[in-house]
Amino acid sequence: MSSTPFDPIDPLGLDDLLEPEDLAVRDAVRAWARDRVLPHVAEWYERGELPVIRELAKELGALGALGMPLEGYGCAGASAVQYGLACLELEAADSGIRSLVSVQGSLAMYAIHRFGTEEQKQRWLPSMAAGELIGCFGLTEPDVGSDPAAMRTHARRDGDDWVLSGRKMWITNGSVAGVAVVWARTEDGVAGFVVPTDSPGFSAPEIRHKWSLRASVTSELVMDDVRLPADALLPGARGLRAPLSCLNHARYGIVWGAMGAARASFEAALEYARTREQFGRPIGGFQLTQAKLADMALELHKGLLLAHHLGRRMDAGRLRPEQVSFGKLNNVREAIEICRTARTVLGANGISLEYPVMRHATNLESVLTYEGTVEMHQLVLGKALTGLDAFR
């Protein structure tokens, strides 16, 4: 048996799984989030806004966090594990910050990088990687969430141009984006378009009155006969497989990110249990509190192990979409339970923004349903396990 001291924050010694380069990425993102987000995020959350989003985007670009796993065009070319560690640290600060990075890199930039022409990549990606240009991703519609095949947004040919009309809903970064990747029906099926947001007929009103992801910009996209040149079309994107592959890339980041929110809540509960006294001693000395802490630690570190495993598979080119569903379903669900349990350890203080727990819990209610609801991921796994399609 090892004589290495037991670390309550890393009880399984998971840092042993990481290379020095991985640790450097993690520590750099953690330090940035500690200095630039944590001192202000409770205020942003309470106000329901992210007033410095443009400044943060540029700082994240300088950090190499935007489009991290992509190669070239100013992107870092990081490993999947390194990208996952960045998502972990960003969401440990707030889900809204991780969503900013995820939508920018894993959705908008990824779509252009994978499906765009060389001219489109050269035009858009370097400024997006630097955080000078913010992007968004328009797939979900007001009446269409889990069934994107039923989208109503459409694009029709008019000479050499395209004319785009429709609405998208719950779009992160929408009202601050300079470019939107929008998915629409055409006579040849679903296609993707790169849309400058200053195009006539395009607007992005911000969605207010949210009780989750409050430190995040969420918008509607409205396209009223937006005229686009022929080269706005993403030529490599044909059919629903294209946007769904983008979502799969973003879901991978959520597998890690959810554990960041869970870790922050667990650490807050652990520190509170050590210092809060009732009946003459710290509440961490009572059996029921220790049982809660033990159960939280178990689920947190099982989720981290799962994230590491999926990251290694992605780096090896062996990660399947069903495995991402496995990770998203498990880790978000368990993260919410960890937050709820942590809230009970903190008692009434658990609902205060002086502590991160309730903020993480409410944020995760959005993470639970976006980019695939619980039911959708259950059905993905059910089909993989049985070979039978229960979607329709």
From TrEMBL:
Keywords: FAD, Flavoprotein, Oxidoreductase, Transit peptide. Residues 136-226 form the Acyl-CoA oxidase/dehydrogenase middle domain. It comes from the Bacteria. GO terms for biological process: fatty acid beta-oxidation using acyl-CoA dehydrogenase; fatty-acyl-CoA biosynthetic process. Residues 238-385 form the Acyl-CoA dehydrogenase/oxidase C-terminal domain. Its cofactor is FAD. GO terms for molecular function: fatty-acyl-CoA binding; flavin adenine dinucleotide binding; glutaryl-CoA dehydrogenase activity. Residues 20-132 form the Acyl-CoA dehydrogenase/oxidase N-terminal domain. It holds the Pfam family Acyl-CoA_dh_N. Belongs to the acyl-CoA dehydrogenase family. This is Acyl-CoA dehydrogenase.
